[in-house]
C-alpha cells in the first residue's frame, strides 16, 4: 500500500511517499480500514519536528485523524460490519501507524460511525479537534448557559469547533481572530464579541465587554504571552483551560493565586499515550455524541484546504505558516467533494 513515511525527525521533506506492507490485524478486536482521508493537525507537525512520545520508533506513519470504510474485521469484532463507514482518532504518534496511508488498523472500540450527512473526507477533519474542544469545555471547565467565555484563535481547527459547542451550551462568546474574513466566520457560528488581536488589546476589550469583571472562562489555544495575558482577562474565581504548556513565572503564579483562578490543561492524547483503554472508549463516545449534533444541524466543520496524500509535506508547510482557518485534509480517495460545511447560526438547547 501507499503511505507517507516520516523517515527521520526534521523538515517536511522528511515525509516521503513509499510502498509499505498492508497491515495485518493485530488482534481479534481490530479492523482494517480503507482510508478515504486523513485530517492534518498541528500535533503532526510537532511530532515530525520532534517525535516526543516514541523517538526510538522511526520511521513512522503520522496522522491521528482518519475516516474510511471497514474492509476486514477480527473474529471478535461486534460493533461494526464490513462496509461500515467510520471515523476515529487513533495511532499516528509513533506507537501505531497513523492515517497518512491507504489502510490502517484500528481497535473497534476506538471507532465511531461517521456523521451521516458528512462525506468521509469531511469526517476525517473532525476527531481530534472535536474531542479536544469537548473535553476542554464540557469536562474540564463545565461550561454552563449564560457564562462568558473567551476563545483564542477562534477560526482555527479547535477554535471553530469550540465556538459552536459554546454556542450550543448557551454561553456568551468572545473571540480573538486576525482578519475580517475570520470575523465573519466566527460571528456566523455564534460569537458575540469579536476582537481583532492585531489591532486591539484583548484584555482591555474583554474588561470593557464584561464591565470590568473579566470572563468566566478562557480557552487558550495559542499559549505563551497570550496565555499569560489571559490571566488578567479572567474574572476572579474564573477558569482558564489551555492546550499548551504554560510559561508561568513565580509572579504569574502569584497573580493566578491572588485572583483565585483555576488553571486546567487539556491534552486529548493522554489516554493513547498512557494506554488507558476505558478512557479511549470515553473519547469514542464523544465522537458519537458529536455525530448526533452534526446530523441534527447543530455542528459543522470547515475544511479550508485539501491535498492528495502525496502532498503531505506541502500540507505540513501550510500548517506551519500559521493562520489556517478550519482544517486541512489529505485525500487518500481522490474523489471530488465539497470542502465547506457551514454550521447554522440559531440557538439550541443543551441536550447532551
TrEMBL record:
<feature type="domain" description="Enoyl reductase (ER)">
    <location>
        <begin position="10"/>
        <end position="330"/>
    </location>
</feature>
<dbReference type="InterPro" id="IPR011032">
    <property type="entry name" value="GroES-like_sf"/>
</dbReference>
<dbReference type="InterPro" id="IPR036291">
    <property type="entry name" value="NAD(P)-bd_dom_sf"/>
</dbReference>
<dbReference type="Pfam" id="PF13602">
    <property type="entry name" value="ADH_zinc_N_2"/>
</dbReference>
<dbReference type="InterPro" id="IPR051603">
    <property type="entry name" value="Zinc-ADH_QOR/CCCR"/>
</dbReference>
<keyword id="KW-0521">NADP</keyword>
<dbReference type="InterPro" id="IPR013154">
    <property type="entry name" value="ADH-like_N"/>
</dbReference>
<dbReference type="Pfam" id="PF08240">
    <property type="entry name" value="ADH_N"/>
</dbReference>
<dbReference type="GO" id="GO:0016491">
    <property type="term" value="F:oxidoreductase activity"/>
</dbReference>
<dbReference type="InterPro" id="IPR020843">
    <property type="entry name" value="ER"/>
</dbReference>
<protein>
    <submittedName>
        <fullName>Alcohol dehydrogenase zinc-binding domain protein</fullName>
    </submittedName>
</protein>
Amino acid at each position: 500500500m501507499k503511505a507517507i513515511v516520516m523517515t527521520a525527525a526534521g523538515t517536511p521533506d522528511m515525509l516521503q511517499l513509499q510502498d509499505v506492507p498492508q497491515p495485518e490485524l493485530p488482534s481479534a478486536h481490530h479492523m482494517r480500514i480503507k482510508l478515504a482521508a486523513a485530517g492534518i493537525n498541528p500535533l503532526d507537525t510537532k511530532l515530525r519536528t520532534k517525535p516526543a512520545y516514541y523517538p526510538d520508533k522511526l520511521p513512522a506513519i503520522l496522522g491521528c485523524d482518519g475516516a474510511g470504510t471497514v474492509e476486514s474485521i477480527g473474529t471478535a469484532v461486534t460493533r461494526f460490519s464490513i462496509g461500515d463507514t467510520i471515523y476515529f482518532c487513533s495511532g499516528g504518534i509513533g506507537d501505531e501507524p497513523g492515517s497518512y496511508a491507504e489502510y490502517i488498523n484500528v481497535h473497534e472500540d476506538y471507532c465511531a460511525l461517521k456523521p451521516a450527512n458528512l462525506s468521509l473526507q469531511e469526517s476525517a477533519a473532525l476527531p481530534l479537534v472535536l474531542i479536544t474542544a469537548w473535553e476542554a469545555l464540557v469536562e474540564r471547565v463545565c461550561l454552563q448557559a449564560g457564562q462568558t467565555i473567551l476563545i483564542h484563535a477562534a477560526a482555527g481547527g479547535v477554535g471553530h469547533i469550540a465556538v459552536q459547542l459554546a454556542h450550543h451550551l448557551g454561553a456568551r462568546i468572545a473571540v480573538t481572530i486576525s482578519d475580517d474574513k475570520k470575523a465573519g466566520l466566527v460571528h456566523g457560528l455564534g460569537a458575540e464579541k469579536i476582537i481583532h488581536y492585531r489591532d486591539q488589546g484583548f484584555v482591555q476589550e474583554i474588561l470593557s465587554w464584561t464591565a470590568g469583571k473579566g470572563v468566566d472562562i478562557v480557552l487558550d489555544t495559542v499559549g505563551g504571552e497570550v496565555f499569560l495575558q489571559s490571566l488578567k482577562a479572567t474574572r476572579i474565581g474564573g477558569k482558564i483551560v489551555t492546550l499548551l504548556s504554560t510559561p508561568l513565572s513565580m509572579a504569574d503564579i502569584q497573580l493566578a493565586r491572588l485572583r483565585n483562578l483555576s488553571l486546567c490543561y487539556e491534552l486529548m492524547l493522554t489516554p493513547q499515550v498512557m494506554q488507558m483503554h476505558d478512557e479511549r472508549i470515553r473519547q469514542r463516545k464523544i465522537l458519537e455524541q458529536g455525530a448526533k449534533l452534526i446530523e441534527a444541524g447543530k455542528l459543522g466543520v470547515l475544511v479550508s484546504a485539501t491535498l492528495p496524500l502525496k502532498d503531505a509535506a506541502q500540507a505540513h508547510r501550510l500548517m506551519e505558516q500559521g493562520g489556517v482557518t478550519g482544517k486541512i485534509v489529505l485525500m487518500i480517495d481522490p474523489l471530488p467533494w465539497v470542502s465547506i460545511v457551514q454550521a447554522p447560526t440559531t440557538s439550541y438547547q443543551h441536550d447532551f
